[in-house]
Amino acid sequence: MNIKRGFKKKILVSAIASYAAMGLSAQAQAQAGDDTVEEIVVTGVRGALTSAMDTKRESSGIVDVINAQDIGKFPDTNLAESLQRIPGVSINREGGEGKFVTVRGFGPGFNVVTLNGRQLTSENNNRDFEFDTLGSEMINAIVVNKSGSALADSGGIGSVIDLQTPRPFDVGNKLAGTVKYNYESLAEEGSPQASLLYSGNFAEDTLGILFAYNHFERDSRVNRVTNANWARVEANSGSNLYPDASELRSNANPDGRLYLPQNHFIQVQRDQRTRDNANLVVQFAPNDDFTITADVLYSEFELLRDQNMLVHWFGSRPDWRDVVADENGTVTHFIADRREGEGVVQATEFNAIKENRESSTLMGGLNFAWDVTDTLTLSMDAYRSESEYDDPMGYGNSQVTMGYRNRLTWDLGDGFIPAISGFESGTGSVPYQPDANGNLTIPNGDYLDPNNLRPGFTIRNGRIVDDTIDQFKIGGAFKSNEATGLVKADFGLSMKSRTKARQQFTTGRGLTEQEAATIAQNEPRAYVGPGATLNCMFCGGEFFWTEITPPQVSVLDAGSDFLSGVSGSGNIQTQWLKFDHDEFRRIYEGHVGVPFTTVNVPSESYDIEEDIMSLYTQLEFAGDLGGYPYGFVTGLRYEKTDLTITGNLASILRVEAEGAEVLNEVLTPVTPTKLESDYAMFLPNVNFRIDFTEDLVARAAYSKTITRPSMQELRPNLEFRDLKQNGPYPVTAGNPDLKPLESDNIDLSLEWYYGSGSYASIGVFYKQVDNFIVNATSGQVFLGEDGEPITDPATGSITIIPPGGAPSDLIDPNDQVIEFAVTKPSNVETADVNGYELAVQHMFGETGFGVVANATFVNTNAEYDLNKFDQGFALVGLSDSYNLVGFYENDKFEVRLAYNYRDGFLQSLDQGGVAEPTFVEDYGQFDLSASYNLLENVSVFLEGINLTGEETRWHGRFANQFLLAEESGPRYTVGVRASF
Question: CA-CA distance, 719 to 644, in Å (whole number)?
Answer without folding.
Answer: 20
